[in-house]
Amino acid sequence: MPNNNEDEYKTVKVVLPKTKLPLMIVILRDRKTKEKVHCFATTDIELDAQDLLKKYRYRWIIENGLKDLVASYYIDEVYGKDPEKIELRRSSLSSTVLWWRE
What we know:
By secondary structure, this protein is of the alpha+beta class. The protein has helices spanning about 50-75, 85-100; strands spanning about 5-15, 20-30, 40. About 45% of the residues lie in helices and about 25% in strands. The two termini are about 25 Å apart.
């Protein structure tokens, strides 16, 4: 999120041709090198750029957590068919990982 002098962002609003949905794209890049370009998009045009970047930042933390669960605990290999047992296993693993990291 551009809360320092290292990053800058620009907002572009377009309308998707087939669906006619509005789309806001926020382009984030390193201010000095003009590299490390990242694009973030939403159809919620009421959201301002700062809030969109914040939401993606939080989402990235979640995605990395899921990646860690898959890599370390094989969470993508679910055994059994009972949804309650599968949910209990997932919740237990997530809680254990969060507790361990504190």
